[in-house]
Amino acid sequence: MMRYVAIILVLILSLLETVVPLSRGDEPKVTAVRRAIDRLLERDAPTQEYYEGEPSRETWSAGDEYRPEDTAVLEKEPGREFTILNLADIHFSDYGYRLLFSVNGEQTIRRLVAEVRPDLIILSGDNVCTDDTYYSMRRVTELMESFGVPWAPIFGNHDDEGSCDLNYLADIMRTGAHCLMKKGDPEMGVGNYIVNIAEKNPDGTRRIVESLILMDSHHTQPNDKQRQWFEWAAEGVRAVSGGSAEVSVFMHIPIPEYRIAYDEAWDAQNGAWREGYAAQGEKHETVCCERDGSGNPVQRGFFEAVKRTGNTKYIFCGHDHMNDFSLEYQGVRLTYMLKLGFASGYQPGFNGGTRILVGDAGLTGITHMAATLGSFRAIADVKL
Asked: For the purposes of burial, counting CB atoms within 10 Å of the CB of 192, is it exposed (0-12), middle (13-18) or buried (19 or more)?
């Protein structure tokens, strides 16, 4: 009973915050209400204003040996597609008007998981936002753990804007028994790691089918050490798989080539995709990649590294809530993930997740699944 009272109080507070500013100087009026809610929910109130986690002690150098046992390895049943569900930009918050969106987002996630029945869930950044990340990330972790399947999160540009740094947020998520995240070398950020999808051979050995490289894109794009690490990882999986494994990259912020490729592929005069790009989906906002003072995309060499590997066929990102296009560019498919929920910018119809299917020889399909009343519909379905 008390929990329901607390939820009602949060909803009332959320509605009030959308109408009137609930602050007086530097001291929020909502502090007492929030403390009352914490007591009703029988959870310990934060003891400090800001939380910092311990940085990883892991280091990486180009001379390190690539060993599959140092990665997360998920088993794929031969002859059956392995299903990934990507959830992008859910922007969970535990207080304020965003709570209303989070409640809806949680229900949409539960419906998606029931519909898709994923073998792996990827959270591609901006998982939490605003100042209440201390509780919000716990809520995200509890939700993901409730499904009992592996989940692999990365960070976006909003995750660390609140009361916790990325290391602390990673520590919260890593308490989950099914969370695959590794912090990685701190010189590369927080959350650079590898998830390999493998099949068992008749002799009991494993054959890697798809290597997922998850990266912290910071607030711009991967840094030089990340680029070197990525090339090492792509070459490493090539060596151990005999060249048969594909590589897919997941990050939050689109690299500049998303904007460059779109400008080449989209015929604005005729309102249609040009041939040769195998493009699908829509663009409703400017591609928000790193740009210089004149607005031109800043290329830092990551896409050139992707092309050098030869086995990296896919890049996935989030960040831009109102874009969902997917296209082929110089041998690599660049794909936006479908945004989930209504928080922080929303394009009508763009509320759901992205299903990615992995077959015996790599990816076989990418489908944006948009929530409708009681069901989901494909708004982009890329057959690979």
From this structure: buried
Judged on CB neighbours under 10 Å (0-12, 13-18, 19+), 98 is buried
* Rounded CA Rg of the chain: 21
pLDDT on residue 29: 42
Environment class of 383 (CB within 10 Å of its CB; exposed 0-12, middle 13-18, buried 19+): exposed
pLDDT above 50 (res 50) = yes
Residue 115, pLDDT > 90, answer yes
Q: Are 97 and 18 in contact (CB under 8 A)?
A: yes
Contact 89, 319 (CB under 8 A): yes
pLDDT digit string, tens, across residues 333-354: 999 999 998 878 888 899 999 9
Question: 48 - beta bridge partners?
Answer: none
- Whether residue 87 is predicted with pLDDT greater than 90 in this model: the reply is yes
Write the single-letter amino acid at 324. D
Query: What is the reported pTM?
Result: 0.91
Residue 6 is predicted with a pLDDT of: 61
Query: 336 and 323 in contact (C-beta within 8 Å)?
Result: yes
Distance CA 127, CA 159 (A): 6
Q: Where are the beta strands (DSSP E) in the chain?
A: 23-24, 27-28, 72-76, 82-87, 120-124, 151-154, 193-200, 206-214, 246-250, 266-267, 272-273, 312-317, 326-329, 332-336, 352-359, 362-372, 375-383
- Beta bridge partner(s), residue 318: none
Please report which residue ranges of 21-129 form alpha helices under DSSP H. Answer: 31-40, 98-116
Beta bridge partners of 217: none
Mean pLDDT across the stretch 236-249? 96
Task: Give the pair of three-digit tokens for residue 345.
Answer: 């910018």
121 by DSSP, 3-state: which? strand
The helix, strand and coil proportions of the chain, stated in percent and rounded to the nearest 5, come to 30, 25, 45
DSSP state of 310: S
Task: Tell me what the pLDDT averaged over the chain comes to.
Answer: 90
